[in-house]
Amino acid sequence: MRVWLRISKVCIVSMVMVALIGCGGGGGNASGGSAPTSKTLSDVASHLFGYGQSIVSTSFSVHGPKMQSHGVAFFDSALGLWATVRLGSSDFYEALYEDESTTVPAGDLNYATVDITQSQSGSISVTLGRCAGLTGTFNQALQPNGYNGNINYSIPNVSSVVSTFTLNLSGSGVLTGTSTNAVALQSGYTQNEKIVNNADGSLTVTTSDGNSCQSVFNFAADLSGTGKITGSDPGLPAVVSWNSTGVGSVTYADGTAGSFSAWQLAGSTAGIFRGAKSARRAP
């Protein structure tokens, strides 16, 4: 029996956005708190960029809305690419494209299904877009009450991600469960995420990193959401919000604000810091 698995949306989401509490250390509140230093901005930038690396694992699922596209091109907001899905008698194939008219190939997902072992596995390749150069593998197996498996992928000179998942399947077909993501950047930064997959399709992600920062991010099914990063750095806690493409804002404890796109803070750390200072709210 062929089984199509829905992977945990690792990295993230629910339009029902809950305020979050984060990490080790204290510092301030939304008004009257301490100002962020250049180290704070650098640490927050790494935290957000780590999310940007792991969230793309949500693109490598073989279950969910994409399965109902019936060959029609759909936009993958995590990868920033267009895609079409083809289901064969013993395989799942998803072609990626840079354009909606599907004339510029940008990679593919090519998974084989083995009915006798009730498993599925295969390769991942992204050649264009924000994750150009990404290669990896996908594996899943049917369990008595659901599925488990892993996704491993890397981008040369940027990052590597190891994602594992255990999902439960209810009698009505609803998937719930947990997964983990281990992110390692070329710079030496590391980030560990625990994801809870909720029955409504939303995700709650609790994260700790190598800079002693922690966060709780709540994602909606479209990958938009809100969260909070905490730690001992001046200017924390920081409140974060973003849309489905990873465009959002960070507000530090003193009211200083910064913006990011595709999970990356804009400009250099020094530039962000100057901009953040100028954006500080008047008392």
Polypeptide structure, described:
The protein is mostly beta strands and 283 residues long. It has one domain (38-278). Helix content is 10%, strand content 42%. It is built from two helices and 17 strands. The chain has helices at residues 38-54, 269-278, and strands at 74-76, 81-87, 91-97, 105-114, 119-126, 134-143, 146-155, 159-169, 175-185, 190-197, 203-209, 214-219, 225-230, 238-242, 248-251, 257-261, 264-265. The chain has a 17-stranded antiparallel beta sheet. A hairpin with a 4-residue loop joins strand 9 and strand 10.
Summarize, please.
With 283 residues, this protein is mainly β. The chain has helices at 38-54, 269-278; strands at 74-76, 81-87, 91-97, 105-114, 119-126, 134-143, 146-155, 159-169, 175-185, 190-197, 203-209, 214-219, 225-230, 238-242, 248-251, 257-261, 264-265. It has a 17-stranded antiparallel β-sheet.
Lay out the secondary structure.
Layout: H1 38-54, E1 74-76, E2 81-87, E3 91-97, E4 105-114, E5 119-126, E6 134-143, E7 146-155, E8 159-169, E9 175-185, E10 190-197, E11 203-209, E12 214-219, E13 225-230, E14 238-242, E15 248-251, E16 257-261, E17 264-265, H2 269-278
Antiparallel strand pairs: 1-2, 2-3, 3-4, 4-5, 5-6, 6-7, 7-8, 8-9, 9-10, 10-11, 11-12, 12-13, 13-14, 14-15, 15-16, 16-17
Helix pairs in contact: 1-2
Give the tags.
single chain, 17-stranded antiparallel beta sheet, globular, 17 strands
Helix/strand-derived category reads mainly beta
Low-pLDDT residue intervals, each spanning 5 or more residues: 1-31, 268-283
Question: What gap, in angstroms, lies between the N and C termini?
Answer: 64 Å
What average pLDDT do the residues reach?
A: 82
Overall 3D shape: globular
In terms of quaternary structure, the protein is single chain
Rg, nearest Å: 19 Å
**Biggest sheet, in brief?**
17 strands, antiparallel
Per DSSP, what share of the residues sits in E-state strands of 2 or more residues?
Answer: 35-45%
Helix/strand order, N-terminal first = HEEEEEEEEEEEEEEEEEH
**Number of beta strands:** 17
Q: How many individual helices?
A: 2
